Amino acid sequence: EDESMDLIYAVIVVRFIERKAEFLEEIARVLRPGGIALLHLGESNWEYPYGRICDDKLLTPHTSRIVLRYENELIPLPAYLKFFEQDAFRFRFIGKPRCVLRVKKMRSARLHLQLAFDPQLTVEMHALPFRHGLGNARGGSRSVYHVAPEIYHALFEKGILSQENLEAS
Description:
Blueprint: E1 5-10, H1 20-30, E2 31-43, E3 51-52, E4 66-70, E5 73-75, H2 77-83, E6 89-94, E7 98-105, E8 115-117, E9 123-124, E10 141-147, H3 149-157, H4 163-168
Parallel strand pairs: 1-2, 4-10
Antiparallel strand pairs: 2-7, 3-5, 4-5, 6-7, 8-10, 9-10
C-alpha cells in the first residue's frame, strides 16, 4: 500500500535483488512522509570516481552492487541520487565497505529514477574478474543500468558532475 511504512530495514536481501533501482523506487513508494529506509547493500564501493569504463564486462574495478553508465562513462550512484533529492527525498550512504543506503522521505512523492536495466551486463558478483584486489564480492548480483541522455546532461547543468572529473580519470 502506498505510504504505509514508517521504517524499512533490509539486511543482506538487497544484494540478491537483480533489479535494485526498481526495488529502491518501491521502497520510496511505500514509505510515509517522514519515514526512513535503511538498506544494507553488501560490500560496495560507492566512491568510485566519475570516469571512463575500464572494459566491457568489468566496467569498474571497484566492488559495486549498482553500476550506472552513460555510453562509455560511469556515473557514481551517490551523484545520480543527488539529482533526485530536491525536496521529497534525502539519500545518504553510511559505512564502508559494507554500505548502507539511508532513504528519508520528506513529503508525499514518487521516485522515478529513469534508468534502463541491462540484463546482459547484470551478473552474479562471483563471476566478475576483479583486479588489483579491489573486489571482494560474496554473493548476490551486480545490477547495471543505462542513464538517459537528458538525465546525464542535467547532472552537468546542476553542477553534480563536471567535465574536469572525467578528464582527470
